Amino acid sequence: MNSNSTSSDNFKETLKQQADIVRIVGDYVKLKKAGAQNFSGLCPFHAEKTASFSVHATRQFFHCFGCGESGDVFTFVQKVENITFPEAVRLVAQKLGVPLPKVSFSSPAEARDAQVRMALLDVHVRAGAFFQESLRRPEGANAREYLKGRGLDAETISRFRIGYAPDSGFLLRDALRREFDEELLRESGLFSWKEDGRSQVSGVRSQQKQVLRSAQDDNLVEKSDQEPKAAAAIYSKFRNRVMFPICNEQGKAIAFTGRTLSTDEKAGPKYLNSPETPIYSKSRVLFNLDNAKEAIRKLEYSILVEGQMDCISVYAAGFHNVIASSGTAFTELQAKLLGRFSKNVVVNFDPDTAGARATERTLGLLVEEEFSIRVLTLETGFDPDLFIRRKGKDAYGAALKSSQKYFDYLIDRARAQFPLRNSESKVKAVNHLLPHIQRVPNRIVRDELALEISQKLGIDSAVLRQELKHAATTRSATAVTASAEAQVTGAERVLIRALASATEMQAGGTGSSAREGTEKEFDPARQAQYALQSERLYEGLGSQSLMEALLEAGTETADVMALPKTEDDRRLLAAILMSEEEELTPETVEGAVRALRRIYYRRRLEEVQLGLQRAGLPLEERQALLQEKVRFKRALMDPGLAETGSKAS
Ligand SMILES: [Zn+2]
Fold it and tell me: 163, 128 in Cβ contact below 8 A?
C-alpha cells in the first residue's frame, strides 16, 4: 500500500464505501448470489468453467479461490483494466459520477506516465476529428468513393468514426501542434521522422537540422525548409488513407488503422497500423469491443472475424456482437478480455486460407481459455464482408445458425483428409486430432471428446479406443495446490473472523446488509483479542502471523484486507471471510478459544515429554518439567476444556 496524503486516503475510503463492489465487478463479471453476503462468478483473471471467484458485499472485497487473486474494488479495476492504482481510483470515481480531487501518484514517474496517457488520448480525439473532417472535405472524395464501394452508409461511417488522412505530411501536424507539444506527438504513433544517428542526444532534438529526403515526399522537403527547425522533424505516418480508429473498451480512440488509397507500391502496406504506444498495445485490444460488449452480454455469444472491414460490415448488417482480432493471431490477453463478456464464440474466418497457422493458434488459444467455439465456414472465396454484400444479412444470419461445433468441424476435416478405410488411416486421423483435444483444460471434457471421436471415426478396436482415451486424458495434469488454508483449523477460522469483525463495526452502515443488532453487548473481536493475547494461544499455529497482524491493528482501521503482512495471509483471510459460515456467537467464539487451548496444551505437553527424555538432565530442570507436565495434563482434563464438537486433533 502506498502512503499518500490522508486527504486522498479519505477520498479513496469514501469512494470505496460508495462504490458497491458487487455493481462495479458486475460490469465485468456475471455475478450470481451465492450466500447471504456473497456473490460468485467466473474469474476474469484465470480460465475456469465453474465459478470460484467470489465477491463479498459487506466487506467489499473479492477473492478467487481458483487463482488466488484478491483485493478491493480498486485492485479489481486496476487488474482487470490493467491500469495504475490512481487510474483505477479515477475510473471508479467516474463510474460513480463522483468528482475527483487532485490525483496523487506514488511516484513522479507514475504521475508523468499517467499524464502522458491522458494527453495521448486527447491527441487521438483531436486526430480522429481531423480525419473525420478531412473525409467530408473535397480532398476526401476518393475515400468517400471507396467507402461507398464497400457498401458503408453514412450512419456506419459516423458510428465507427471513419475518416480520411489527407495526402500530406503536415496538415495533421499543423492542426495538432497548436495544442500539443512535439515530444508528445512523437509518442502518439501518428508521426514519423527521419532519425539521423548523431544528433539523437537524450531528447535534444531542437538543435538538429533535419533534412527530409525521400523520393515520394518532395513537397514535404520543400515545405519543411520553411518550417522552424524543431518542427521540421515530424510528418504524418498516415497519408492518403482511409482511417479507422481502434478504440479501447470505453470507446476512446487509442490507435488507428489506415487503409491506403494509392495504387503505388511505394505508398507502403495496404493496411497500416499505429505502432505500440503508452496507450495502445495491440495484444490487449479487440476491435469494436466498445460497441459490441453490451450485445455480446445480452446474446451470450460473440462473433469473431478477422479484419476491421469484415467487422464493420457484420455490425452494419445488424449483428452487433461482432469483434475483430485485427488480422493478427489472438493473444491470451484478448481471449481473456473477450471471455469477460461471454465464453461462447462463433469464429468466422476460414481456417483453410493463407493465415491458417494464425487461425489455428487463435482457435487453440480459445480452446485453452475454455471457450465454447463454433466455426462458421462460408463458401470458398467469401469473407463476411463480401458474403453480406452479395447475399444479404438474412443469409448471414442463417449461416450463423448453421455454424458447427469446433470439434465436429475438426473431426469432419480429419475424415476428409484421411479416408477411414482401414485402421491405419484411422490412427492417422486420431493423431491428427489429438493435439487439439489435449489443449482442452478440463479432463472430463477431454474424456468426452475422446469418446465422441472414436464413435465418429468408427474406431472399433478396443486397444485403439483405450489409447485414444489415455492420450486425451493424461495431459499435463493440473496440480492441485495445497493451500495454507487447508492447514488452518475451524477454531482458528472462527477466531480470525472474530478479530476481523472489529473493523466491520466501524465500516458498518454503508454496506447493503445492515447487520441486525444481535446481542448488543457481545463483541466477538474483544472476546477473541482478550483470550488470544492473555494466553498467547496463537503461537505456533499456521495462522500465527495473520492473527498477530489482526491483533496488532486492533480496531484502528476500516480496511481489514489491508492488514495482513504477506500475500499468503491476505489470501487466507479472504478465504476465511468469504466462506463465513454461521453467525458468530459468544458460544462459538468461546468454543474456538477452548479448542486452541487444547491444541496449545497438547503441544506444550509434547515438548515437555521430549525434554524429559533428554539424557543428563539436571535434577532441578527435571523437576520443573515434571511440574509443567502435571499442570498441562490437568489443564487438558479440565471439564472447561471439554470438546463440544470433537474436531481438534
Ligand atoms: Zn481466478
Answer: yes
Distance of CA 95 to the CA centre of its chain: 18
| Burial (CB count within 10 angstroms: exposed 0-12, middle 13-18, buried 19+), residue 419 | exposed
For 46-105, what is each residue's pLDDT tens digit? 878 888 899 988 888 898 888 878 888 999 998 888 788 888 888 888 888 877 766 566
Specify the pLDDT at position 478: 30
Q: How many CA atoms lie within 13 A of 464 on its CB side?
A: 19
- In terms of Cα–Cα distance, which of 246, 272, 239, 240 is closest to 141? 240
CA–centroid distance, residue 340 to ligand 1 (Å)? 12
pLDDT at residue 3, as a whole number: 43
How far is 546 from 119, CA to CA, in rounded Å? Answer: 43
Question: Which residues have a Cβ under 8 Å from the Cβ of 543 and sit 6 or more positions away?
Answer: 488, 492, 496, 572
What is the distance between the alpha carbons of residues 14 and 60, in angstroms, rounded to a whole number? 13
d(CA 549, CA 568): 13
pLDDT of residue 472: 66
Give one word for 43, left, alpha or beta, with left for phi > 0 and alpha for psi -120 to 50: beta
Q: The whole model's pTM is what?
A: 0.58
User: Alpha helices of 418-523 — where are they, by DSSP H?
Assistant: 423-438, 443-456, 462-473, 490-507
Distance (Å) from CA 91 to ligand 1 centroid = 22
* Dist. CA 42 → ligand 1 center (Å): 8
Ligand 1 centroid distance, CA of 582 (Å) = 25
Span from the CA of 28 to the centroid of ligand 1 (angstroms): 13
Write down the pLDDT at residue 204.
Answer: 36
- Tell me how far the alpha carbon of residue 581 lies from the centroid of ligand 1, in angstroms: 22
Distance CA 273, CA 259 (A): 9
Cell of 222: 520543400
3-state secondary structure of 55: strand
Decide if 376 contacts 367 (C-beta within 8 A).
no
Which residue type is seen at 593? V
Q: Which residue is associated with the grid cell 464464440? A: 345
Residue 330 CB-half CA count within 13 A: 27
- For residue 493, the CA-to-ligand 1 centroid distance in Å is 22
* Terminal C-alpha separation, the chain: 38
User: Residue 401 belongs to what H/E stretch?
Assistant: helix 393-401
Residues of the chain with pLDDT under 70: 1-8, 101-106, 196-232, 326-329, 350-358, 423, 461-464, 471-487, 503-521, 554-558, 580-581, 639-649
For residue 236, how far is the Cα from the chain centroid? 34
The pLDDT value given to residue 581: 62
293 has which bridge partners? none
For residue 179, the model assigns a pLDDT of 92
Q: Please, which residues bridge with residue 165 across strands?
A: 241
Angle at 528 between CA 523 and CA 533, to 5 degrees: 135
Residues 6+ apart with CB under 8 A from 27: 95
Ligand 1 geometric centre to CA of 284 (Å): 19
Report how far ligand 1's centroid is from the alpha carbon of 71 (Å): 12
Q: Ligand 1 mean position to 76 CA, how many Å?
A: 12
Q: Which residues lie closer than 8 Å to 250 by C-beta, 6 or more apart?
A: 290
Q: What is the pLDDT of residue 45?
A: 86
For residue 414, with 0-12 CB atoms within 10 Å meaning exposed, 13-18 middle and 19 or more buried, which class applies? buried
Q: Which residues pair with 72 in a beta bridge?
A: 61
Q: How far is CA 647 from CA 132, 486, 529, 541, in A?
A: 71, 14, 22, 16
The environment of the single-atom ion ligand 1, i.e. residues with CB closer than 5 A, is 43, 45-46, 64, 66-67
